[in-house]
Amino acid sequence: MSKGQSGLGKSTLINTLFKSQVSRKSASWNREEKIPKTVEIKAIGHVIEEGGVKMKLTVIDTPGFGDQINNENCWEPIEKYINEQYEKFLKEEVNIARKKRIPDTRVHCCLYFISPTGHSLRPLDLEFMKHLSKVVNIVPIIAKADTMTLEEKMEFKQRVRKELEVNGIEFYPQKEFDEDLEDKTENDKIRQESMPFAVVGSDKEYQVNGKRVLGRKTPWGIIEVENLTHCEFALLRDFVIRTHLQDLKEVTHNIHYETYRARRLNDNGGLPPGEGVLPPAPASPCPATIAE
Amino acid sequence: MSTSLRYKSKLVNPVEEKQDHDKQYVGFATLPNQVHRKSVKKGFDFTLMVAGESGLGKSTLVNSLFLTDLYKDRKLLNAEERINQTVEILKHTVDIEEKGVKLKLTIVDTPGFGDAVNNTQCWKPITDYVDQQFEQYFRDESGLNRKNIQDNRVHCCLYFISPFGHGLRPVDVEFMKALHEKVNIVPLIAKADCLVPGEIRKLKERIREEIDKFGIKVYQFPDCDSDEDEEFKQQDRELKESAPFAVIGSNTVVEAKGQRVRGRLYPWGIVEVENQAHCDFVKLRNMLIRTHMHDLKDVTCDVHYENYRAHCIQQMTSKLTQDNRIESPIPILPVPTPDTETEKLIKMKDEELRRMQEMLQKMKQQMQDQ
User: Fold this and answer.
1) By the CB < 8 Å criterion, does B257 face chain A?
2) How many structural domains compose chain A?
3) Disulfide: which of A35, A94, A173, B212 matches A187 by Cβ 3.0-4.6 Å?
4) Domains in chain B, please, with CATH?
5) CA B241, B248, A122 angle in degrees (round to 5)?
6) Could you list the mean pLDDT of each consecutive 10-residue stretch along chain B, which spans 370 residues?
7) For the Septin-type G domain, which residue ranges apply (chain A) (predicted)?
8) Across the strands, what pairs with B185?
9) Interface contact B266, partner A, CB < 8 A
10) Model-level pTM greater than 0.90?
11) Considering the domain boundaries, does residue A275 fall inside one?
12) Which of A225, A238, A226 is nearest to A194 (CA)?
């Protein structure tokens, strides 16, 4: 799921993430973006293949988030959507005659696009992440990072990390879910140094040093998307796809989903749920109970 | 880059003076010189407002425009502190001088604008401020002692549009509509170095369309006279076609092609602020300072202020006729009335202060001349 105000390059980045080295079977993207009046949720599914491995990728976009004058509670439709997916899964699970492989429409990862102001997080960013880090894995990204010089990037990242820490926002990979020491050291490094990833997206190719690379051509130089000295797109891609993809799914299933399930069952007095979806949880630290 | 000082071409050549002695030469052709001398002695003032979300580079741009550092001791708030912040109005005044011409520059900053989660009516403190300055001027103008009225009216408002959007956001539209009839609005595309030329073109078109669509009256550059030379007319055309200007600001000097220029150093290249191929900063600076500063002040006085004044007087006269009182020729504002004694004292003290200030200035000048 990709989230953030319009114009932060979400569509372009998703294109870049999955087009850069993967077959181009994805559907074409609608570039005509007008600001909708309420937050919409648009889910588009693709099947991509690499090396004989097929993956069904669903990208959920949220146009309209944070664009209005009054953005209070604009995260509610999103929280509702995420909970609805959990509900669907739960219903299938408690079915008497349930399918062998339950269709999984749950959101495994939410990429949150932070606007590169260079100062700090916006109040809206804080509010959103506070509410949603309880229900879904949030990976914060600094969008359009080509607007900051190296020093500005470092400073901004530090400030963002500090603000997230001060406000108790646990973004993925969450500290409390590190399973062993190996995981912990690896994730610590990512958490404290690389995240949030400062990315630049592009779907256009240019010739640089005899190679064709994805990039952006400006009057003062070409920004190469996959060049680590220019931006951290390659790090993000490796993180989300190559190393932590499975872990994202596991954390979603074992922790976020189980939390939802436990709350649901508790509310129903231990009985399997009937109709209805659980209302959005209050923004208090959620109990780490796993009913079994 | 020719600074078009049209005025210069009309200054009288002293040689011509002697030649014209034969004809019917009265001599008032020297009036422009006299005006020039008086204005330079008096000094100029200009009030510029900057508005837009935080983090769009407003302070950096103002520093770049006037080559000063107005924001040395600024403290940036973090996101949590900003959740409940309201829009403030901050004024910085600085006296700068260039080639003997003094400018008293006032920058009105609007921190907190558009930052909150709920930004309803976040432009209200700003419209209130602009109205207050008009009201203050109106009172001063209608007062008894009009010798040294201080003009705090806002002459121009630079509105920063985020380059990260697809055009104008609802808050941008509402702000400009609330202010377009009170102040000259010059929209700018901030942080233009994150856009490639094609994107800038599209964004400018989109913004121009939306400005038309919503009926926003931004500051229009006056048409140049038909007797101006081609070069000037060409410049004027280019200026009009580049609006809204896509600007970049920088407080740092970097080394580019052997020269030290104001710019931003990236791993993939150096952005030069004053390079016309990189951004419209030079156009903005020329427009704002070198060619249109006086026009901005004129439009403020002749159009926006007069609108306000007419509106005000209409309201007052309608109130008066409601109360069935006699209409007086000079509109008298309901002033919180101190008694006449203290008023006289205040006026005397005011005059004394001004006389002392003038003397101080003269003494400073004398010391400098020595």
Assistant:
1) no
2) 1
3) A173
4) 33-321 (3.40.50.300)
5) 115
6) 43 51 74 85 87 86 79 62 70 83 86 82 88 88 80 90 85 89 90 87 89 88 74 79 86 81 86 86 85 86 87 83 58 54 76 83 81
7) 1-267
8) B157
9) yes
10) no
11) no
12) A238
